[in-house]
Amino acid sequence: DAGVIQSPRHEVTEMGQEVTLRCKPISGHNSLFWYRQTMMRGLELLIYFNNNVPIDDSGMPEDRFSAKMPNASFSTLKIQPSEPRDSAVYFCASSPTLGGRYTEAFFGQGTRLTVV
Amino acid sequence: DAKTTQPNSMESNEEEPVHLPCNHSTISGTDYIHWYRQLPSQGPEYVIHGLTSNVNNRMASLAIAEDRKSSTLILHRATLRDAAVYYCILRDVTSGSRLTFGEGTQLTVNP
Predict the structure, then answer these.
(1) pLDDT digits (tens, 9 = 90+) for B45-103
(2) How far is the C-alpha of A17 from the C-alpha of B81, rounded, in Å?
(3) Do the Cβ atoms of B99 and A33 come within 8 Å?
(4) Residue A36 and residue A59: Cα distance in Å, rounded?
(5) Are B43 and A91 an interchain contact pair (Cβ–Cβ within 8 Å)?
(6) 3 state DSSP class of B111
(7) Of B36, B38, B93, the CB nearest to A102
(8) Percent of chain A at pLDDT above 90?
(9) Interface of B with A in 47-76 (CB under 8 A)
(10) Minimal C-alpha gap between A112 and chain B (Å)
(11) Which residue in B44, B87, B97 is closest to A50 by CB distance?
(12) Chain B residues closer than 8 Å to A55 by CB
């Protein structure tokens, strides 16, 4: 398996534009997580899904952020409109279930977003 | 979420053992103790996890206190490639699978 795949790896956009980050989890994994990492705030959990259903989106900063998981092999994180303070590295991770219990999470390489 | 407390930074010498501590005094009975690390410019990487008993794998060992209120990640022979931020996380695997990171410990390995 190629691991968790995120695209694009780098994104530079102008303030006010829509940004869509994409994630392909590892096949067979039941959970999917979106994180944001900045120097000031560290690694923040934005939202996570179990079996394609959003379970907790309390970490989503505001209504400009939205996430979807239309099927088990694809998820998107959208920011509309983007602002300079959204500049960060965004990570996607997926986690399998073993015997009904979730085990380790596998992270993608991240998308570095710069909003100018 | 039950909280963990780790030192901000630690230093070690190459080829020496490293003991990274973590306090989690409010741990619940269904919380597993997970450790992840993040190397520079990479996503976090799973290291090890346990519930009550000590655990070993090819990367590290996890020693869990009898009352489960603290744990220690042990790297038996540190290498320069082990320089990273190490995160101790409590994960309640019976109520969803939330995985929340704290500030972690920045490990520096000196040659």
Answers:
(1) 999 999 999 999 999 999 999 999 999 999 999 999 999 999 999 988 766 667 888 89
(2) 39
(3) yes
(4) 10
(5) yes
(6) coil
(7) B93
(8) 83
(9) 49
(10) 10
(11) B97
(12) 96, 98
Whole-angstrom distance, CA of residue A112 vs CA of residue B104: 21
List Cα–Cα distances, B10 to B1, B19, B67, B104, in angstroms.
25, 9, 25, 11
In tens, the pLDDT along B9-56 reads 999 999 999 999 999 999 988 889 999 999 999 999 999 999 999 999
Dist. CA B33–CA B65, nearest whole Å? 11
Return d(Cα A51, Cα A104) in angstroms, integer: 16
Distance CA B33, CA B87 (A): 10
The verdict on B29 touching A (C-beta cutoff 8 Å) is no
* pLDDT score of B100: 85
What's the pLDDT tens digit per position in A95-109?
A: 987 766 667 899 999
